[in-house]
Fold these 3 entries.
Entry 1:
Amino acid sequence: MVGSVCKLVALVFSAATLSACTTTAVKSGSGFLSSYEGLQPRTDVVRSSVLQRRDDALVSSVTRVWIMPAEIFGVVDFQLSEEERRMVLSEVDRQICYELSEYFEVTEHSDPQAGVVRVGVTHIAPTHQAGSAVAAVANFFIPGPIKVRTPGGLGGLGAEAELLSPDGRQAAAIVWRRDAMVVGTDKPSLSRIGDAHRLAEPLGDMVADALGTEERETRSSTLPDPCQRFGPRIRPEGFIVGIATGLYQPELSGGRSTEPDED
């Protein structure tokens, strides 16, 4: 058994030299954004593919935002169940809300005096369940946080987001995509949406980085928490189960699997 696992690990690391940092590049938009004019590729990221633009002066004039519930826009790589759809969208909402709340005052309802953040999920690639099971066994013999995944069958997530000023002008926009890595910290999952759900966290980071300005002062936490409707900030049960099993379980991680109220 150990010999077979070692052979698998060697195979994975060999394949990783070619694919460890590969994510399919985004070259154009899906049609979700109000405008794609001025989008430029970011060259300072290695695991994601990113196009973005930002009008710093216009962004600086926006202090309050209403985050519209994320939607799936376009065709994904497989047929999602309603529960899978809700879980992915809820986690995208949760991560983006918590990250943007550090830069903007987030309102719980639409407000004509507030900016509007629109988010569309444009790509979901399924996680290969059998491959994840094999990887979980292999990772048991590998100490440390670095995980290996079997080549092929890695999931992914893609999305587009924009910040509109109160008068409807596009202040900032981003087109983003990231696939799970063969070698890295991407835990395998027995759920088809495991990678897409987990990648909502780096998506939230990148959206906040794209829509906020470097000069904007980071906001402290406010009560009541405007993002609580999307789920708790921390799910310790998912962290504990991940350590015990070596697997990412979306139903125990992130926020709720129910859709937030639409106002």
Note: The first strand starts at residue 40 and ends at 41.
Entry 2:
Amino acid sequence: MAYDDLKSRIREGWQDTLRDILERARSLGTEAVLAFDLDSTLFDNRPRQVRILREFGAARGLTPLGQCVVAHWSSGWDMKTAMRNCGLDPEQVEAHYPEARAFWLERFFTSEYCVEDIAIEGAAAFTHAVVGTGAQLVYVTGRHEGMRAGTVEAMQRCGLALPGERSTQLLMKPTPRESDDAFKREAHARLGMLGQVIAAFDNEPTHVNDYQRNFPQATVIHLATDHSGRPVELLEAVISIPHFTGVS
């Protein structure tokens, strides 16, 4: 499903849905469980993308890539589009993309680079609002354990509720080899054992739909930011939001 199509699902009053989630969390207290993805849900990864593309440009003498800014990553995770937006012509993009992709893979999924992430608008305040209800906040991310230190550092810098504080946990893949889809499905069983899952937040349509199927009584929220590009239709019950501002 295209980004524009997903964004078109956002309806007026979506902030009321978030307020309702907080109210339900207050009523249930520690029994309530709220699950949050990180990338493109609570974190904007584009500064990390910018750093990597700039460094690739510097390493290969591609001056336009050295001028990369966040706005050049306007089409989600599409590096080819970002390279064109920076000023490379289509032939240059095709010639350099395979090496740029390999350069990216060596860096993107590391603690050293994920510290560049910034928070989605209102995300930090909303995580603290969740913790303030007494509910359990569980970050469920496809990041692997090797990224834990950088992830927590970025959380702290961005002001998010930190794992280990009150009833807040961070669930990560054991290694980079595991499938994100499989890991998140396995994590659902762990969430169900913690209490009553009343809300789940993710940007990836596949993961959002899995939450909706596994926890039909929960309010499942889709962040209409960006996603992997897989052509997956969101289930009708899923609610799309652009960010977390305007709730409190």
Note: Strands lie at 32-36, 43-44, 118-119, 136-144, 168-173, 196-202, 219-223, 239-241.
Entry 3:
Amino acid sequence: MTTTTTPRTTTAPRGRALARMTATEARMMLRDPSVAFFSVVFPALLLVVLGVAMPWADEPYDTSDPLLARITAITGYTPIVLSLAIATVALSTFPATVATYRQRGVLRRLSTTPVGPGRLLVAQVLVNLGALLLAAALAVTAGLVVLDIAAPTQPLLLLGVFVLAVVAVFAMGALVAALAPTAAAANGWGMILYFGSLFFAGVWLPMPVMPEVVQQIATYLPLGAASQAMTAVWVGQPFPTTQVLVLAGWTLLATPVAAKLFRWS
């Protein structure tokens, strides 16, 4: 008599492994006060300081656009602060953390287990996504309560765009995390991307006053597209189709490339 055996599914064990890894990464983040501060508290603090100290905070954000003219400059700067928060974690903290694991041999030891690079990168993204969602909530709440910024006209859509922006910018940071041999290298490579991205996100110079060609370039870069898309849904402009597609494209292209290029040592 023959018997048939049903192959055991590995979905549940893989899910549990990802959950355990995510919980471990979360504990590691909480043990570092500086990482927790810059990931969660700094965006709200920066927004409040700018809103209180800067003389331009109560001026119209952009008098050439009817919708943007109705909001204050600090309201228009709030999506930019959210973009800055994403970049700080995705292009600075995240690559340096993974590279530190590589430098200390943690990744080499993990390479002998069933844990794959994709699962490690996903765990990092999940932990930092949670931190950034909390940071965004604190920043927006502080802006509404302390600075009297205009509330977003489409809050749920704003949340969706924010999450997509996090994933897209992390996909770019994952390329650095996949290859940087040391924490110092990750910091160096990440800072180049970081400061360049901040420029195209409008941190150094507000987007409306940038030359048209710079605004067009920014549309096709992850952080620039994120800043533009969040501003559009905040003030009620037409749905930012191009920017959302750009964010999705960066996510779908860069993530598998990072997993493919990932180095354990």
Note: Residues 73-103 form the longest helix (31 residues).
